[in-house]
């Protein structure tokens, strides 16, 4: 962090980013400046409680998942900037424009630029956990985070919170109802079918099971976990080709991390193109499914992305 940051932040706060008589993360400058400005909602997240002003029009969205949901709800007119220095998902390419401020990377926000933009509200996610306190000094901050132990319920709650923030609750309710119906149809087709979820990171293989960041394949879409003892963790459980052959699931769901981060595709296919994998049931029956890494790795939990994720799994079932 640059040494001049405290001075810049202080200047920005002096212009009205700090709260008056309240903690700075619980009030916007507009709210503090006028006692007649109403709050549309009180919203709670891992970053604490915030008051959302009724005239909210300047949101810094520092998380692609949240941006995907806001985009799905038709509220992009409230977005003033996002992290453009990271690999922006292709479905959000329209945000790569001079119209939006570049706030840095999804895991390292430029706090000086953020403060200078004077947002009324900040939306961030787990990748910015270490900067969360600093973000709250700039503006009231909502922390988008899905509880993987209750993935589908938590996804609904997070979506509705974002909908309340941007004033699109009825739209969100309808889209979630449709998504529930789509997921139910998929789970009817997966009964009795086993699966293993593998994240390929160059030459490393990481397995994910129930109640993990990719666990909705089991928890909501009904595939039986081929190994119920996989350790839950952000980065999964390290496995080998021999492990995959030993477990021999009906379906292999593959997420190519490098494809999401660098945009270069084909790495996962190359990594799994070996004699050990070729002898598995999934390979012989053409049940190795290469998932859309943008949706699963970068926007997992976004409203548009979730619709595509459910449809993608459903269409892979044979």
Radius of gyration based on Cα positions: 21 Å
Low-confidence stretches: 1-39
**Sheet bearing the most strands, described?**
6 strands, mixed
Report the oligomer. Answer: single chain
Shape: globular
Bin the strand percentage. Answer: 15-25%
The total strand number stands at: 15
User: Can you give the mean pLDDT?
Assistant: 89
* SS element count, helices: 15
Termini gap:
52 Å
Structural class: alpha/beta
What pattern of helices and strands is seen along the backbone?
Answer: HHEEEHEEEEHEHEHHEEHEEHEHHHHEHH
Q: Which bin fits the share of residues in helices?
A: 40-55%
A few lines on this structure:
The chain is α/β, with parallel strands linked by helices. It has 15 helices and 15 strands.
Describe the 3D structure.
By secondary structure, this protein is an alpha/beta fold. 40% of the residues lie in helices and 19% in strands. It contains 15 helices and 15 strands. The strands form 4 sheets. Strands 10, 11, 12, 13, 14 and 15 form a 6-stranded mixed beta sheet that branches. It has a 5-stranded parallel beta sheet with strand order 5-4-3-8-9, with helices on both faces. A two-stranded antiparallel ribbon has the order 1-2. Strand 8, helix 5 and strand 9 form a beta-alpha-beta unit. Helix 7 runs parallel beside helix 15. The protein is globular and about 60 Å long.
